[in-house]
Write a structure and sequence with these properties.
single chain; alpha+beta; Metallo-beta-lactamase, Chain A; seven-stranded mixed sheet; six-stranded mixed sheet; 15 strands; binds zinc ion
Amino acid sequence: MFLKKLAVPFAFAAVAGAAHAAAPMAKSQAPGFYRMALGDFEVTVLNDGTIDLPMEKLLHQKPDKTIKALGENFLKTPVETSVNAFLVNTGAKLVLIDTGAGGLFGPTLGNLVKSLKAAGYEPEQVDEIYITHLHGDHVGGLGAQDKPLFPNAVVRMDKRDAEYFLSKENLEKASGDAKGNFQGPISSVSGYAGKVKPFDGNTELVPGVRASSSFGHTPGHTTYVVESKGQKLVLIGDLMHNAAVQFPDPGVTIQFDSDSKAAMAQRKAAFAEAAKQGYWMGAAHLPFPAIGHLRAEGKGYEFYPVNYSVPR
Ligand SMILES: [Zn+2]
């Protein structure tokens, strides 16, 4: 009896001691959501994961220049690049803007539903899904092969992107790897029969959220403007891909653009307007949580990421 009682504290001490000496490396990150109030709305940034991008090859300027700009920001190529989506609760509707990559871009992406659940929502609650453009890392998270991950949602995008990326004819004309540019989107929306509703240019979609055309990165690339009680957040999708290079020099374009010149003009206009008006700006590939303010600085801009805040 006496010995048995003693054995427990000693055993405990041994375990605690061992744990202190060699805790395993956790190799995980905090849940991928960040919440902020915008007037009466609640905006939750959802991270889908990250992907390594060789920016010195993708950006259209001398590789040395890109490497130097990255170095000044304590970054190296390939740059671990966030893929983000944005959930807007207007109080009446739950709106998801972009969906991440789903299974289209490998194991470091496809965490959107995990982040959504960590943020306290179920996919069934999402009413509306607005897609900035139909590239795989924005549309892949809808689901695949007739299986919708958001069974109660309607899916909306500009009709120019729908006509281009969801075209069976374009799929047939494409060769080799280029087929994937069409196969991915077609498979992603396949579970939403009758619920894919393209719009034509600037459109109010639900009160407080509107589509604003920013064609260039893709034929129907769209910016979404979220507004409540005089507060404004403009989600610019893929008008930019790298903060270290494109804020100081918005003239640098990227290989992913279908029309680089138009995409550049849209980026310059978006940055100028955000800096002038002082509203919030968010982008799919800014480092999570991917929201902040801009200030004009020399020939370019300085980005001020959102101050960490806990809703009260
Ligand atoms: Zn993208």
